[in-house]
Amino acid sequence: MPIDHAHWAEYLLAGVDERREVQAITKQVDELGVDDAYAIQAALLELHRGRGDTLAGAKLGLTSVAKQEQMNVTEPIYGWVLASSVLGADQEVPLGELIHPRVEPEFVFVLGSDLTGPNVTASDVLDATEKVVGGIEVIDSRYEAFSFTLPDVIADATSAARVMIGTEGAGPRDAELATMGCVFEVDGDITGTAAGAALLGDPAECVAMLANHLGKHGQQLDAGWIVMAGAATDARPLAAGTVATARYSHLGPVTVTASKGT
Ligand code: OOG
Ligand code: MG
């Protein structure tokens, strides 16, 4: 039987709206494949657009060994960044709108021109990049126990929930991205350290993969968008009152604070 993409998109959106975990789709549909999962992700994006949301960018996930081991999924994934998900500089993460959020550090590319696959290289990515900034992504899987298989997490918008972007940043060729350092601290404890090379050897290579993936579907990365290359360390729970800071060499620090509310 063909998989009803619109149905599963509504199912996931209900989890977001009602702030509750839902059962993984693959526990109910064992034949769910990656192509169907991207079709559900696209249907979910259309539901958000129907509510007036727009795209602010795109993202990769599971591009580091740290994340792949934490989530037990060993392939990179691609998703979107909704305009409504981008936090303002002094905005707290609204815990009351989320299920069981986690935070993770991200290298973020701010694009100055479009990137259209196929055949996009890491060097093309640097040419198209206005600046690279540090970021912290708030992920919030809609699935029970934050547990999923590859198709599940693709369908669920790659767990995207919120993102905070740093204000400093650097030009794409001002410093080598592969050796750029990141120290991730949660409530004063260092929970992870990584270099840009943790992301498939080079964060720009990840963005090239994303542009080439989109190119296969007649889509592209747009000038003005932010693009997250994927977390370089594993993700940590974001509880009420938690303060998380990612400190990057060359890019400056980024901090998110969780609201006290539940
Ligand atoms: C999937 C999202 C992964 C990243 O940066 O690796 C991701 C998840 O871990 O829930 O955004
Ligand atoms: Mg991420």
Structural notes for this entry:
The structure is a single chain. This protein is of the alpha+beta class. The protein has one domain: Fumarylacetoacetate hydrolase, domain 2, CATH 3.90.850.10. Helices cover 24% and strands 28% of the residues. It is built from six helices and eleven strands. The protein has helices at 5-17, 34-50, 65-71, 122-128, 150-155, 203-216, and strands at 55-61, 77-82, 102-111, 129-139, 160-165, 181-186, 189-195, 226-231, 236-237, 243-248, 252-257. The strands form two sheets. Strands 1, 2, 3, 4, 5, 8 and 9 form a seven-stranded mixed beta sheet that branches. The chain has a four-stranded antiparallel beta sheet with strand order 7-6-10-11, with no helix packed on it. Helix 1 crosses helix 2 and helix 4 crosses helix 6 (203-216). The longest helix has 17 residues, at 34-50. It is globular and about 50 Å long. The protein starts with a helix and ends in a 5-residue tail after the last strand. The model has no long low-confidence stretch (mean pLDDT 97). It binds 2-oxoadipic acid (OOG) and magnesium ion. Magnesium ion binds at residues 61, 104, 106, 137, 139, 228, 230-231.
Q: What do we call the CATH topology?
A: Fumarylacetoacetate hydrolase, domain 2
Bound molecules: 2-oxoadipic acid, magnesium ion
Report the sheet with the most strands, covering strand number, pairing sense and barrel closure.
Answer: 7 strands, mixed
Radius of gyration: 17 Å
> Given the C-alpha coordinates, what overall shape results?
globular
> Mean pLDDT score, rounded?
97
Give the number of DSSP strands: 11
Count of structural domains: 1
- Output the helix-strand order: HHEHEEHEHEEEHEEEE
Percentage of helical residues? 10-25%
